[in-house]
Specification:
heterodimer, A: mainly alpha, two-stranded antiparallel sheet, B: alpha/beta, five-stranded parallel sheet, two-stranded parallel ribbon, disordered N terminus
Chain lengths: 241, 321
């Protein structure tokens, strides 16, 4: 790897760290706004919050990444102190001693990665903050039903169902079918007892149906005939299956 | 002084090895004074001239001659006195009759050497002192209508005595500015002085065998390496700011020139090479600020009254940076 590639790699590593920091900052801002809106009982459009978050991320990333300097690596890696700066400022030179400097820099910077420039303490603080805000957000979601929330802004996906009761009544059964005639209004008790060997699962259920014994008790002879007819139909249907 | 030769050319990988060898050879004669030897070597690497200030009997001449022999340089010494004439330094035209016919030929003076030690330069008259200016800056001398180039490399080490100022001619600012560094030789420590006494009292003529570590060409190559030592932009700017700060200090009547900025950066490069580094560090700038600036700034009356010296002011400036 040439020394120019080393500097490109170091900048990439730096930008990776800045993306991570910007992302965490954005999370903190978005979660904080969300929680603040909950506390203030303020309703908002989620898309607006998303846009704010995205804009904040871009701004924060620009802000954090514009101050890039190899001195950051030098501060965190004492063995590179002044070396990186000097090499960077003399990249266009090809004399013997500058080449020796480049070789030295390459050797010493081999193990340098973004880990060395990650502000670990800061990142952990932010992670804890994000965790705390996430918990608060979750808790606010649980207690939300107790709070009077205005849903007028939302489109109700079940509006069709709620409208059912308001439909116009076209007519009743009597108007369509006419008045019922020859209805025996005397009480008729139909006792049906179904006995079988119950088994679990489908096969057992099927077998149980085959073995079942049906007994009908009716107080009327006509009804008995009808029931026999119904039994035959049932058996025929079962055979068809 | 006996010499044995080892004059190979220098590759960058061997620079530090060679510099260490030079110091080892000088250590055979000199006791202690490592910092001073480093400063003189730095100045030589930067192709600069040195103003050496010390009390008498500190081994200035010994040090200069030892270094020149180790570097394979031709050495000459000029003792400055009020009646010393410029032609005594540069040389003069004489009538030569050896060929049977009288003709003027140029007889070179002691300035025609690679390393010239001018002892007690402040005892020479300004006219004679100024004769050295051209040699120091242009690396040439002009006698009559002819200019003569001096052999490269060329260094001038001028010494002056901080005491006995009577009957001396202090160097004008313009001439002081031409010295890359002003090096102050301090008294040795008790232990060092004991070793000096032991070393120079056991033999009638203490004369260890010195090895010539470099050739003239190798030294010129080393000087090129020194110029190539990379420096970060911000470190160079800081060095310039140190020099510029000397022009704004109320303790100073006048500050250092842009030549001081050039010399501070160059000296830092030389220092980096001596410290076996392939780049200039801010440590080098801080370390070189005193010898590069102390003879280029003038204390104000109030600062002198307070008992300050130039080194105090330079330290303050470097500290504030």
């Amino acid at each position: 790897m040439r020394v120019e590639d080393l500097f490109k790699r170091l900048k990439r590593e730096y930008l990776k760290v800045r993306v991570l920091q910007s992302f965490l900052d954005t999370l903190i801002v978005v979660l904080s706004l969300n929680f603040a809106a909950f506390i203030a009982s303020y309703s908002y459009d989620l898309r607006a919050l998303g846009l704010i978050g995205f804009a904040f991320f871009l701004t924060r990333f620009y802000q954090l990444s514009r101050g890039y300097s190899v001195e950051l690596y030098e501060e965190k890696n004492q063995r590179l102190d002044e070396l990186l700066r000097t090499a960077e400022d003399n990249l266009d030179r090809r004399d013997e001693i500058t080449q020796a400097l480049f070789n030295d820099v390459m050797e010493r910077a081999r193990k340098v990665s973004s880990e060395s420039i990650i502000p670990s303490e800061r990142i952990f603080q932010k992670l804890f903050l994000v965790g705390g805000l996430a918990i608060l957000t979750a808790v606010s979601g649980l207690v939300a039903p107790a709070i009077d929330i205005d849903y007028s802004g939302f489109e109700n996906p079940f509006s069709d169902i709620s409208d059912i009761g308001d439909e116009e009544v076209i007519g009743n059964a009597s108007e369509v079918m006419g008045e019922p005639t020859e209805i025996d209004t005397t009480g008729t008790n139909v006792n049906i007892t179904v006995e079988g060997e119950g088994e679990s699962l489908d096969e057992g259920f099927r077998r149980g149906l085959e073995n079942q014994e049906l007994r009908f008790e009716a107080s009327d002879d006509e009804l008995d005939e009808d029931l026999e007819l119904a039994q035959r139909y049932s058996l025929a249907i079962r055979n068809l299956e | 002084m006996k010499l044995s030769g080892k004059k190979d050319s220098v590759k960058y990988e061997k620079v530090n090895e060679k510099l260490a060898e030079i110091k080892n050879e000088v250590d055979k004669v000199m006791v202690g004074q490592e910092e001073i030897i480093d400063q003189i070597l730095t100045s030589i690497l930067c192709d600069g001239n040195i103003l050496l200030e010390s009390n008498p009997g500190m081994g200035k001449t010994k040090m200069a001659s030892t270094i020149s022999r180790t570097l394979g340089l031709e050495f000459s010494r000029i003792q400055s006195t009020p009646d010393l004439m410029p032609s005594d330094i540069t040389g003069t035209h004489i009538v030569d009759e050896s060929s049977g016919k009288a003709e003027f030929i140029f007889q070179q003076g002691p300035i025609f050497a690679n390393m010239v030690l001018t002892d007690e330069i402040n005892r020479a008259t300004p006219k004679t002192q100024s004769a050295l200016l051209e040699a120091m800056q242009e690396k040439q001398v002009t006698v009559g209508n002819n200019s003569y180039s001096l052999d490269r490399p060329f260094f001038l080490i001028a010494t002056q005595n901080p005491i006995e100022q009577e009957g001396t001619y202090p160097l004008p600012e313009a001439q002081r500015d031409r010295f890359m560094m002003k090096v102050k030789l301090e008294f040795p420590s008790s232990d060092e002085e004991d070793r000096i006494v032991e070393r120079f009292t056991q033999e009638l003529d203490y004369d260890p065998e010195l090895e010539q570590v470099l050739s003239k060409d190798a030294l010129i190559k080393l000087q090129e390496f020194t110029r190539d030592v990379p420096i970060a932009d911000d470190i160079r700017k800081n060095a310039v700011q140190v020099v510029r700060a000397t022009r704004k200090r109320e303790e100073l009547e006048y500050g250092a020139s842009p030549r001081a900025s050039i010399n501070l950066v160059l000296a830092s490069k030389g220092r980096a090479l001596i410290e076996n580094r392939n780049h200039v560090s801010m440590k080098d700038v801080r370390k070189m600020a005193r010898p590069v600036l102390r003879h280029r700034i003038g204390l104000s009356f109030s600062a002198e009254k307070k008992g300050l010296n130039p080194d105090d002011v330079i330290d303050d400036i470097v500290e504030e940076l």
